[in-house]
Automatic annotation (TrEMBL):
Protein name: SDR family oxidoreductase
Organism: Denitrobaculum tricleocarpae
Record bears the keyword Kinase: no
Any one GO MF annotation of this record: oxidoreductase activity
Family assignment from sequence similarity: Belongs to the short-chain dehydrogenases/reductases (SDR) family.
Cited SMART domains: PKS_KR (SM00822)
Keywords attached to this entry: NAD, Oxidoreductase
Keyword Metal-binding: no
Length: 258
């Protein structure tokens, strides 16, 4: 087990990629704190992990609220004694035509997707420095950090910021033994994508931009998270790994598989 007795926090862990990361970290021996604003789903997810024999708890947290983030870190340390890894995964999307985008919606997305990653990473790093021994921070980015979908402007802007935040955090914390990296998923079969999975036109558009000819699964992103959390990536910091089925490498569209 690559993460035996390590303590990891995963935000946005009630479903999708966050839940898959929590499950995979636990399978590698980590003691896992699942966190989300969806309390019922989060508690159920933690209980399901406990039933497999994992050390797992749930702590509710709105990552855009500094006091709640600090309480999450403190609660995790109170439960498990230390903190070794954080996966800052919590995020939201707001779809809207650019000319119709309201200021409050722009602010709301950046509050969670960018400010939340900053607050989570800073609070986690302070704990790691205080206890000694270093640690790992993993920020969930997206292929949309370097590409652009005009209907989700705040999301695209926030993810671009996450990439730069990952770089500056990695440099700032390198001498503390804390490695900071990002993961940039492409099209992953989360609840958002499942909602259009039966729409042949929508799925065809995705496949035309994905050289591997399929969408990814949350577990495939979780495997990258385990790599970045473990000593297998001991000389990797300041990087964003794009698990995107080849999407960023493709200049033009390609025929969708039948």
């Amino acid at each position: 087990m690559r993460l035996k007795d390590k303590v990891a926090i995963v935000t946005g862990a009630a479903a999708g990629i966050g839940l898959a990361c929590a499950q995979r970290l636990a399978s590698e021996g980590a003691k896992v704190v699942l966190s989300d604003v969806s309390v019922e789903k989060g508690e159920q997810a933690a209980e399901a992990l406990q039933e497999t024999g994992a050390d797992a708890i749930f702590i509710a947290c709105d990552v855009g609220d500094k006091a709640q983030v600090e309480a999450l870190i403190a609660g995790s340390v109170a439960a498990f004694g230390r903190l070794d890894c954080v996966v800052a995964n919590a995020g939201i999307v707001h779809a809207c035509d650019f000319l119709e985008l309201e200021e409050e919606d722009f602010d709301r997305v950046l509050r969670v997707n960018l400010k939340g990653v900053f607050l989570t990473g800073q609070a986690a790093a302070r704990q790691m420095v205080a206890q000694g021994g270093g640690g790992t921070i993993i920020n969930m980015s997206s292929v949309n950090a370097v590409m652009a979908i005009p209907s989700i402007t705040p999301y695209v802007v926030a993810k671009g910021g996450v990439n730069q935040l990952t770089k500056t955090m990695s440099i700032s914390l390198a001498d503390k033994g804390i490695r900071v990296n990002g993961i940039g998923p492409g099209s992953i079969m989360t609840d958002v994508l499942k909602a259009v999975a039966d729409n042949k036109e929508a799925m065809s558009k995705i496949m035309m931009r994905t050289p591997l000819g399929r969408v990814g699964e949350p577990e495939e992103i979780a495997k990258v998270a385990v790599f970045l959390a473990s000593d297998d990536s001991s000389y990797v910091t300041g990087q964003t790994i794009y698990a995107d089925g080849g999407r960023l490498a493709l200049n033009y569209t390609m025929p969708a598989p039948e």
